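== Polypeptide entry ==
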Amino acid sequence: MRRALLLLLSCALAASAAPKRGVEILWDTWGVAHVFAKDKAGLFFGYGYAQMQSHGNLILKLYGESRGRSSEYWGPGANNANLAMDRWVLTNDIAERGQQWYQQQTPEFKKYLDTFAEGMNEYAKQHPDKLDEAAKRALPITGADPVIHTQRIMHFSYVSSAARVNVAATGRGGAPGGIGSNAWAIAPAKSASGKPMILMNPHLPWMDWYTYYEIHLSAPGINLYGASQVGFPVLRFSLSDHLAFTQTVNSIDGSDLYRITPDGDGYRYDGAKRDFTVKEKTLAVRQADGSVKKEPLRVKHTVHGPVVWDSEKLVLAQRTTGLDRPFALEQYWKMAIATNFTDYQAQLKRLEVPSFNITYADKAGHVMYMFNGLLPKRSEGDAAFWGGVIPGDQSKYVWTGYHSYDELPKVIDPPSGFVQNTNDPPWSSTWPQVLDEKKYPAYTHSGRPEMWRTTRSLRMLMEQPKISFDELVAKKHSTRLEFADRVIDELVAAVGKSSNAKAQEASKILAAWDRQTDASSRGALLFELIAPKLQFAVPLDLKQPFETPRGLKQSPEVLAKIVEDASAEAAKNYGRADAPWGDYRRLKRGATDLPASGGPGALGAFRVLNFAGTQPSRNTMMGDTFVLMAEFGGRAVAVTSYGNSSQPGSKHSEDQLPLVRDKKTRPVLRLRKEVEANLESKDVF
C-alpha cells in the first residue's frame, strides 16, 4: 500500500513539473499545421515544433550555416561551399551580432524566441529517428538562433550578399535569376463585392533558405494565417481577421562596396593613413575521419565595415544598413497582430525591417503600398554611382543616417482603388501614377524596371471597373505574355513582307499561338527563342508603359532570319517548332513530373515559372511559391507549390504540384471546425 502511494505521489509530482502548455497542433490533409494555443508563447512553441516536423533537416542545416559552423558540423562541403559560407558569416560578425541582438530583445519577445526554440528541440527530442544524424550535430537550438538566421538572410543575403561582392570583384557569378514577387491590394471601390482583397505571390527559387513555410496560428484574440521562410519565427506574409500584408523584393540600395586604398599596413582615408581594426577568429573544419581541425581567420575592418575582398589588385570593404536595428522580428510580429491601420503604421514607422516592398489591405477598406527599407542619406550621386564600387578614401561617401518613414515612397488609398508591385520601382505602384520620381533622391532605387510583368499586372487591374474574387484568382493564374502581345502582329506582318519561305511558314505558328505559356500552348517555345533578339525602335518610357517600347527596329529580312533560325533550333530541340510548352517545361520534384503552365516574368507572364537544365526538357527551379488570395469577410485560397515539407518520405513534399499544373488552389482553413473536417493528425502538449 505504502509503495503504491509513493508511486502515485511520484507520478503526481512528475505531472506537476511538466509544463502544461495548452498547445494543440492540428495537421490538415495538405500538411499545413494549425497551432491552437492558450497564449502567445504557446503559439511560438507550436510554430517551432511544426517547422521542425516539416523541415527539420533543412532548418538544422540553415541554423548551422548562420552560426558560421557548417564546416565544423559537416566538413568543407562540395567545392568548399561550407567553408565559403562560414567565412562570409564570420567576416560579417553575423552570429556574434545575432547573440547581441537576442540579448537586446524585450523580455516578452525574448520569451517568444525561447519558446520557439523549445518547440524545435521538443520535436527533436520526441522524434530523433526523423532527423538525419549529421543534421543533429546542430542541436540544440537556442532562442538566439532564429535571430542569427534571419539576420543572415535579410541583411547578408538580400541586402548585402557574397554574390554581389564576387560580381564586383571578378565580374562573375550572381544570385539566381528572376527573384521577385507579385502583390495586389484592392480597395472596396475596385472590388465587385465591395470587400477589400489581397494577393500574396512571392517568386523565389524552390530550394534552400528561400523555401516558404505555410502555417496557421490561433490563440485568444489572434487568428493569423500566412507564411515565412523556413527558420523564421514570425510571418512575413500574414492574413488576420483585421488586416493582411505581403512583401516583394525591392531595389532599395542598403549595401555599398568601397574600394580601399592600401597604405603600408593601413589604408588611406581623408588624406591620412588609418590602421585597420583586426579581429582574430577561428574556422573549425570537420575532417573525413570525424576530427575537427581549426584554422585562423583574420578579419580586417575599416571605417566603412569589414573587408570582404582582399587581393593584391583590389581591396573592398562593405557597409550594410540595419546593423543598428535589432528588432525586425518583433516589428513583423506586431504588424501581424495589429488590429487597425493606425497601429499597423506605427510598426512600419519603426523601420527595423531593412528591405522589401510592403503591400497592405484591411477590412476597413484601406490599401497601402510602401517602398520599405533603410535608405541611407547619401551626400551625392545617383543609383548607378552607388550601385558600383565607391571611392573609400573620402569620408563624404560614408553615410551614417537613414531616410525617415515620411521620406520613403508610399501610396495610401489612391483614386484608382488598387496598389500593386511586381518588383518594379515604386512609381508604378498604382495607375494613373501618384508618386513623382523627381521628388525623391536619385539614388532611391537601384533596380531596372520589370517592364513586361509590371505592364501585364497594371493591364489586368485596369481592364474592368471592378474585380470579383473569382476574377482575381483567374488573373493571378494568367500565363499570357505581355511581350508577345506587343510584337507578334508586327513580327508576323514583317516576315510576310520578306522573301523567306521558311520564316513565313514558322510565322504561321506565331499567328495561331494563344500568346500564353499554358502547358498546351503551341508557339511559346518558339517565341522564347525569338524574343531576346528583337529590338525596338521606340525605347521604354516609364510614364507610358502601355505604349512603349514599340516598333520593331530590324528590317523584314533580318526579322525573317531570326524567325527562321529560331524555328530550326526549336525543331532540333523539341522535334517540331510548334511543340506544346508543357511537353518540355516541367514541374518536377521527387517522383512527380508534370507539365507546367507558367512562364518567365521577363517576357510578361504574371504566373511566373522559371526553368533550369539543358535542352530539350527543363524543370522548374523558381517562380510561384506560396500564393494566397483573400477577400475580407469572404473566401481565402492558397497553394504552396512545392508542398509544405522537405523531410524525406513526407507525402507533403510534392502533393500540391498537381494543383499548380491545373492552375488551382485550395481553401484556406482558419476556423477550428474547418480544420477538424480536414484533419490528418494531431499533436497535443
Q: What stands out?
A: Residues 30-172 form a domain with the Penicillin Amidohydrolase; domain 1 fold (CATH 1.10.439.10). Residues 1-18 have pLDDT under 50 and may be disordered. The two ends are 32 Å apart (CA to CA).
